[in-house]
Amino acid sequence: MPYLFSYGTLQQEEVQLSTFGHCLVGEDDSLAGYVLAQQPIDRAASIRISGRAVQPIAKHTGCTHHHVPGTVFPVSDDDIKLADRYEVEAYRRIQVTLESGKQAWAYVEA
Known about the structure:
The protein is an alpha+beta fold.
């Protein structure tokens, strides 16, 4: 089963219900080597679902003392495809190793 790491709107219950059709259950984790910045969003559907025209985005720094806190969720392959449709082109999905040691998909700056 794949994992999805979220530090932003995919942690919101209303976004999960709209995107996946169900709520996800996860646990706290963290991504090293990244910092959070703010990303303006121009897709009306994403803004309507999340309630935010500006959303967090993880930017790679490579510095091990930089950490992005978030939640890691066990998901299905279908959930990953649905998350891909939700995210805008400013984000890209990559495989990461979280501080827990789990391998997960994460959406970071494209």
